[in-house]
Design goal:
Elements lengths: L3 H28 L5 H12 L3 H29 L1 H19 L5 H15 L2 H12 L5 H8 L1 H21 L1 H22 L22 H18 L1 H32 L3 H29 L4 H22 L4 H85 L15
Helix pairs in contact: 1-6, 1-8, 1-9, 2-9, 3-4, 3-5, 3-6, 3-14, 4-5, 4-6, 4-9, 6-14, 7-12, 7-14, 8-9, 8-12, 10-14, 11-12, 11-14, 12-13, 12-14, 13-14
Length: 427
């Protein structure tokens, strides 16, 4: 009996770990299905007689509320728990997207898309909290590297689906059809996920026993101390500043890459859309590889790995400026390298490096703060892109991105030797 009980516990733990990891990946993958305004932009503008400036207002409403939501849900997630936070966020996003698909007034569209941005912001801090509660820090870089493929895969699949919906049924279907999938996943998430292992009779990986203190009081004490630690830690603010640089660049590509390809290279609407997928797809192998490098090669020095990826990103931009006009295949190669280096740094900074600061008790706050600061870059990218391209053209924008890449590396340099402390329970 002494050998069967531990074996049974290990099997149960393995099943729960696979369930939590898989559903967490699926949930964030699915968030992208109700983010496809960029695909609908051109036809929507034509049918509703919207100017480019008015389309920018819709973008800005989403990005601003998404930024605010990251911090708000980072705080709320510590109290509400990731299961309820994510399920409510997904169901609300599905409802708002479906309703938007029936509207034609600019003011209502801005209001609905802004509200969608706020509820979409439940995904990152919620999943950051969930994964930090179920998995200890030993292989967090590697696990988060694989997990982070969800937002590259989500971007690719959601964009492909949206393009097909647009071609077959028109721009309104881009908002209504994918919303059904998001609602189903949100419901399944609520039914099948639990916030931490102790809720199903397993040991919490980073929670040491405390004699004479009940579980609820113990958790409350640890959460309060962890929140104070996050806010006092200089590293979290430098990670946020780095993520500002990364997210400004990532969202510029997300929002404007098809437009750039059409204007700079004369690609058709369909070709520009499909070529732009190389940027998202390039991130998938790179985030997995960099997660493994961070944990197995560089001894869990995840910030050092992210800094090196930022330097590589600068090189990828420089290369793209040379090969981008050499044909579609070369353009795809350049975008793949840019996406790989950018997403690689992005996943480490906003994922495992932030979770390392917050631990299992304040990871929602840590991830929310870093993503919230980074999302200011997402808001700013439209204004930066418009002004820079108006004065210095698209090449001027790529030169700016090279500078931002190096600035991001310098922001991480003071913490290059940092690696997480493994709690006693996780050893």
């Amino acid at each position: 009996m002494t050998t069967e009980a531990p074996a049974a516990t290990a099997a149960t733990e393995g099943r729960w770990h696979r369930r939590i990891y898989g559903l967490s990946w699926l949930s964030y993958f699915s968030y992208y299905f109700t983010r496809n305004f960029s695909v609908a932009k051109t036809d929507m503008a034509r049918d509703l007689d919207l100017s480019k400036r008015e389309l920018g207002w819709i973008d800005t409403a989403y990005l601003t509320t998404y930024c605010v939501g990251q911090v708000a849900h980072g705080l709320l997630g510590e109290r509400l728990g990731p299961r309820r936070l994510i399920a409510v966020g997904m169901l609300a996003s599905a409802a708002l997207s479906a309703i938007l698909g029936t509207q034609s007034l600019l003011g209502i569209i801005i209001l609905l898309w802004g509200a969608n941005g706020f509820v979409q912001a439940t995904g990152w801090p919620g999943n950051g909290k969930l994964l930090a509660s179920w998995f200890d820090t030993r292989r967090r870089g590697e696990l988060m590297g694989v997990w982070s493929t969800c937002y590259q895969a989500g971007g690719v699949v959601a964009k492909l689906l949206a393009i097909q919906m647009l071609i077959r049924f028109g721009w309104r279907a881009v908002f209504i059809g994918p919303a059904l999938w998001v609602a189903v996943v949100g419901g399944a998430f609520y039914l099948l996920v639990r916030d931490r292992p102790s809720e199903v009779g397993l040991a919490d990986p980073e929670l040491p026993p405390m004699a004479g203190v009940d579980r609820a009081e113990e958790l409350a004490l640890l959460r309060r101390e962890a929140r104070r630690t996050v806010l006092r830690t200089t590293r979290i603010w430098f990670l946020g500043a780095n993520y500002f640089c990364l997210k400004l660049m990532r969202y510029a590509f997300l929002m404007w890459l098809p437009v750039y390809l059409a204007e700079a290279y004369g690609y058709s609407k369909d070709t520009a859309g499909y070529v732009s997928i190389a940027f998202d797809a390039g991130g998938i192998p790179f985030v997995i590889g960099l997660g493994i490098v961070a944990d197995r090669v560089l001894g869990r020095r995840r910030i050092l790995t992210a800094a090196l990826s930022c330097v590589a990103l600068c090189g990828a931009f420089a290369l793209y400026r040379v090969i981008g006009d050499q044909g579609v295949a070369w353009n795809i190669l350049g975008l793949t390298l840019i996406g790989g280096a950018l997403f690689g740094a992005d996943a480490l900074v906003s994922g495992s490096a932030s979770q390392d600061v917050g631990g299992s008790h304040a990871s929602a706050l840590a991830c929310g703060l870093v993503n919230g600061i980074g999302s200011i870059g997402g808001v700013a990218q439209t204004f930066v892109l418009v002004e820079v391209t108006a004065r210095w053209g698209w090449d001027g924008l790529f030169q700016l991105f090279m500078g931002l890449s190096l600035a991001g590396a310098l922001l991480l340099a003071p913490f290059a030797r940092v690696r997480p402390i493994i709690p006693e329970r996780a050893r």
